[in-house]
Amino acid sequence: MASLVVWRVGWGAMIAWWAWDYLTSGRVRYLYVEPKFHFTYTLFDWVRPWPGVGMYLHFLALAAVGLLVASGCLYRLASLLWAAGFTYVFLLEKTNYQNHYYLMLLIGWWMPWLPLHRAVSVDAAWHPGLAQDTVPAWTLWVLRFHIALPYFFGGVAKLDPDWLTGMPMRQMLSMHAHWPLIGPLLTRDAIVALFTWGGLLFDLTIVPLLLWRPTRALGYAWCMAFHLLNSILFDIHLFPWLMLLASTLFFEPDWPRRILSGKPLSLPPPQPQPWRELPVSTRLGLVAASLYVVFHVWWPLRHHLYPGDASWTEQGHFFAWRMMLRNKQAVVRYYLTDPQLGRTWNPNLRPYLSDMQASRFPRDPEMILELGQFLARQYEQKTGRRLEVRALALASLNGRKPQLLIDPQVDLTRLRRGQLHRPWVMPQAELLPEKAWHLPPTVWERHLELPALPPVTGPPGDWTPEQRDSSEARWLTRPSGAVPAVVRIRLL
Known about the structure:
This protein is an alpha+beta fold.
């Protein structure tokens, strides 16, 4: 179990650093304390941030618990507490979704059940009877399965017409065109093709390369090059370092022992047992594990059951390992209408959202719906009058000309969240161009034919000044260290 000890120590150190980085960089304040509105997952609307200094204490506790996991002190309890605490944070804000956070969530809930504290741990020192040099083989294969998920399905997702044209990668690399010396090279056709096809081949082949002993060293060298390059070119935080650590689990389980002592662990050959001779609890566990595997093989492919492209509709995009797959710009302007007063106005969204939320939520019809219904509830609580809420949402996917994302004539207050059939989401009609659409969102409306929308007559007198129209484009500065320094936000 030597390789699993390395994993436990590295995993605990990483999750502790992750929580501490959120505290010291300002992310806790920026993501969970300051915003007055949070985008939630369906069925989890009730999850809310701790009041006062609660969120800071929560992340401080996550950092401390991560260190307990790394040291193997109260390992099972610490792992369980971390899994529950991280799940709470994960559910708080949908715009902060990352595929590696989903991976951490899955692994986090498995860690309490994996006996990784049997060696080089405080628990083993306190309870010598706990100490062992081996663990059941399934312990290692559970982790290998989870690490294989983002690799393999990340490659499957790239078998996509848009990706294969190279347009998404070209747009991502063009953000570094200003770099000295290498910047201009990144946008050349050959380099774009290298990154596009290299990423696809890496995702699809890296697990077999790591599993097969003759190609393992080559596979890990490729793994190092791939993740280190990603950490330089793209802001993906913990992910490259997590995967570099996790990929060592595909080595022989005693590789750390071989490095330190030069001697492998001598074990008798395993003796397979017939199915009928296995204890009932073992058979039930194997059946449950098989169902778990089947679910996680099917779940990333569920977007094929929905109409339209998941990159456009967002249905099936989350929890599916669809990484680095698209460049999607989107903007939205809400039209609030009070039928009793006969007045229509554009609300100011800035009192409710951070600039990160404002830059991400317009890409997702479900989030547009959620915020629109929130605005209606706020108004009804304040005035006792019902609102009609419509939205002009425009989106450009992978360099296409912008088009309507949702039907601007639909009253969002009459829709239900979480519906599988969404006729109010407009189909993607624009074709992928040879050159990406380059005009800024501030002028999109001038170049599009849009349907007539309710004339803006101004908010009612009881609408506070901070909630009045604020639809112009601005530059917003983010907290230093928390996120990129400046981002351009357009609230149409």
